[in-house]
Amino acid sequence: MATIESLLDSADLPDSPTPRLDAELLLADALGKPRSYLRTWPERELEGEQLTRFHASLQRRRQGEPVAYILGHQGFWSLDLEVAPHTLIPRPDTELLVESALELLPDTPLSVLDLGTGTGAIALALASERPGWQVTGVDRVEDAVALAERNRQRLQLGNARFLHSHWFSALSGQRYGLILSNPPYIRVDDQHLDQGDVRFEPSSALVAGRDGLDDIRAIIQAAPAHLLPSGWLLLEHGFDQAEAVRELLAAGGFVEVHSRRDLGGHERISLGRFEHE
To answer: What is the DSSP code string of 140-183?
Structure first.
């Protein structure tokens, strides 16, 4: 008898760091119900199609495919976002970019740019919290731009827009009071590229040269031409890259350069303000 309780108890996901959570998310999806339903009705038996879908999802997860790609959506900030294999999966660490931007700047009219927007997570989180901001998200992958726009339309956020652009390539002459990015920052030889969920994510959104800083260098070099006076640049980076990024920001003419720590205590983002002469 395939009850909710028995299916969760027998779900075998030996390589997952969160096997019970994964199984609950996949089972709730097969049922078309929230996770709370599983605890409320543990004796509920699954019907044929639901059971087939659950087992198919379990098999995909056993092969290493991220749960977010199997479900087709992922939570970020207060939003539920569509995701797809041509974009990174939004992660809780990146919410530090959103938190820091909201702490730095009030809800007064402001032009904001999110570089490498992917699902639109950062741009849409900021647009949802700051109605007075006009937020632009850009990505070099056209499918990502289309996905971000679908998320925007579903969330009905009229103060955000998405454009096809490789960093600043389509933004000639445009300036912003705030620029943010979660760019690629993994070294090309990093062993973690062969482990876990990142095996299924697009390498172009992960890898940035021999030291992982190629894209961060390019952004820091180009950002001043696109920042308004006293505009801020906020960058996510690897847990061991903060010192190097601070040095790059300082060398690029930024002031008030500092880093902020994520929930794990790692310096996860670095930021600075640019004063035009």
So the answer is: S-HHHHHHHHHHHHHHT-TTEEEEE-STTTT-TT--EEEEEE--
Distance CA 223, CA 273 (A): 11
CATH architecture of the domain with range 85-274: 3-Layer(aba) Sandwich (3.40)
Closest Cα to residue 69, out of 111, 116, 36, 22?
22
Report d(CA 73, CA 80) in Å as an integer.
7
Q: Are 181 and 154 in contact (CB under 8 A)?
A: no
Q: How many angstroms separate the CA atoms of 25 and 59, rounded?
A: 14
Q: What angle do CA 199, 219, 137 make, to 5 degrees?
A: 70
Domain ranges in the chain are 4-64, 85-274
φ, ψ of residue 211 to 5 degrees: the values are -110, 5
- Rounded to 10 degrees, the C-alpha dihedral 44/50/51/54 comes to -110
Residue-level pLDDT, tens digit, the chain, 277 residues = 688 898 888 888 888 888 899 999 999 999 999 999 998 988 888 888 999 999 999 999 998 888 999 999 999 999 999 999 888 889 889 999 999 999 999 989 999 999 999 999 999 999 999 999 999 999 999 999 999 999 999 999 999 999 999 999 999 999 999 999 998 776 565 555 445 555 544 555 555 556 778 889 999 999 999 999 999 999 999 888 999 999 999 999 999 999 999 988 999 999 999 987 6
